[in-house]
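Sat 14:20. Reprocessing the chain from the morning session after the first attempt stalled halfway. Input below, unchanged.
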Amino acid sequence: YAILSHTWGPGEVTFRDLDSNQHKGNVNASIIAKPGCQKIQYACWEARRRNLDYLWVDTCCINQEDNGDVHRNIKSMYAFYQNSSICYAYLSDRDRYNLSEFLILTSRWFSRGWTLQELLAPPEVVFFDRNWYPLGTRSGRISEISDETGIPEGILEGRSCVHQVSVEERMSWAVTRKTSRPQDQAYCLIGILGVPLEPNYDEDVNSAFLRLRKACSEKYPDEISYKHGGDLFSLLVGHVLNHVTRIGLSNHNDTYAMDPAEFTRTEPENPEAELSDKVLSDFLNILPSN
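Finished this time. Tokens:
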């Protein structure tokens, strides 16, 4: 299977859209009219061109209305990308023929928390602009990606294992990245840090990071002290708490982003992926028959 990496926008195709349409034979016109449908169509074409059977897309392979499904998929997300045949990174703000938008590293995709694992985990990543023109591959742009992100070339090439790198270094790769929900600053690191953690969007960001820190201290006791310590994780938790207190986050929809000027080297179980054939097979119904 291929897997799509993208930043969410208005009019995404949802699990409900496909689930309610699967027995109708033809895709509902209201789904085709959604802005998010086009990237699924093009990603399907790319998958079919490579003789792949399925495409996985988070917007509609995860039931966002079911908290249990969301939590299960968050814990398995790293494995989904790692076990894919290829990842298509759709950079909706890049244009191959516009010089000012050609450089992929200035894309919003490189600033988001969740896309860090989507860059690291797959065997290969192919970048596409907003019109689905290819912009190169991770393996072909390793040097510039490494220089920009601080991720060693050996990790990007697959010669070194992400989970053999120190916790501090893995966390440092996420320092400038942002998430829409503050708790996701912690949850997007679950797979990268290789720790078991149950997402809980009813908790505040303080609790999310403290639980992540505890999970890391249990798995990496030589690196992390749960109660105290001058390690990078302790500094990160302190920074997060100070930031939340200062700006007074009051709901889960506020954008939370660490300020790298305040803290320069912060932020930062690989379960078996269980893909739903029923949901994945619906994607190919979107494609034209010829």
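The first helix runs from residue 15 to 19.
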